[in-house]
Amino acid sequence: MPWCPKCKNEYKEGYTVCADCGSNLVDSLDNGPVAIYFGTEAELYEICNFMTSNGISKVQVSFDEKEDIYELLVPSADVSEAQKQLRVYLSRIAAPRMQAETENNDVTNATDSKEAEFYNGPYEEAEKKAEDYKSGADTLLLVGTLGIIALVLLNLGIIPISLTGFTKMLITGVMGSMFVIFLLLGFFSRKSYRMFKEKAGSEKDIKQELHDYLTEIISPDTFDEGLTDDSPSMEILYFRRTEKMKELIRNYSDSLDASFVEYVIEEIYPEIFEQI
After folding, report:
1. DSSP string, 204-227
2. Can you tell me the distance from the alpha carbon of 194 to that of 189, in angstroms, rounded to the nearest whole number?
3. Do residues 99 and 36 touch, judged by C-beta distance below 8 A?
4. Element holding 103 (H helix, E strand)
């Protein structure tokens, strides 16, 4: 039976749209869309396109007739990543644009392709890369080893496949080369796995070190001094806060990768400010 993801009302088969709020009905509330942001229709469609181009499918804009607002809906499984992308959009696209409008009284006419360049995807942890390399290495080594064994058994006549001499040589040569390549790739992937595994340990220590540093020196009651004199919007305030946090991290250590710094800030920001 279809359900409304917003009103939580159950409908009879055949209904596709909620009569109360206008939301598209879903088969189950367990994986239904979740509203993560609201705003103007044009703004939400721009965010929708931004998220779609960065790997989140089934993002949709819905009009809530009861509340008279447009909402951005994402699948429940993508809420965490969508919230990160939303913060990136607000800080790197919306906030600078609004800042330019405030300071220059001129609308920035950046194209969608230019704006999409601000976001290069989520930072991938070394631990995740290590596990990916390990999984790939195990598969390559297994397939390569089994393939070589199968070819040996074939040439010894243990595997009863009738092949002529030339065909047998051709298959052995081509398949043997392929399985050897699999083994080599597997060994290289294993090497990369060990490298990223070592990096994951130091990355975890640095992340915890920055977490302790920022949470210790940042007081939500005083951090915004000088940032809110002109009563900025939440988008501008988020942009100013994150820029100030980047400056603190640069003063603490100027050798950290910029994408890693942004990843750390995205992880810590809700803990510091969204509990206010």
Report:
1. HHHHHHHHHHHHHH--HHHHTTTT
2. 9
3. no
4. helix 95-104
Q: Provide the token pair at 29.
A: 């509330």
**Residue of 64, 6, 69 whose CA lies nearest to 39:** 69
Tokens 């300071």 label which residue? 103
- Please say whether the beta carbons of 177 and 226 come within 8 A: no
pLDDT tens readout for residues 17-47: 777 767 777 776 666 677 888 888 888 888 8
Per-residue pLDDT of 184-198, as tens digits, reads 999 999 999 999 888
How many residues in the chain?
276
The angle formed by the CA atoms of residues 244, 247 and 251, to the nearest 5 degrees, is 145
Q: Express the helix, strand and coil content of the chain in percent, nearest 5 each.
A: 60, 10, 30
Give the E-state strand segments of 14-68 in sequence order.
33-39, 60-64
Q: Name every residue whose Cβ is closer than 8 Å to that of residue 270 and which is 6 or more positions away in sequence.
A: none
Q: Kind and range of the H or E element at 73? A: strand 69-75
Mean pLDDT of 177-186: 93
